[in-house]
Amino acid sequence: MERDQTEELRALQDTLYFIGGKWRIPVINSICNGHRRFREIERSIPGITTRMLSKELKEMEMNKLLKRTVYPDTPVLIEYEPTEYCRTFGKIIGEMINWGREHRRVIVEG
Question: Which parts of the sequence belong to the HTH hxlR-type domain (predicted)?
Answer without folding.
Answer: 10-108
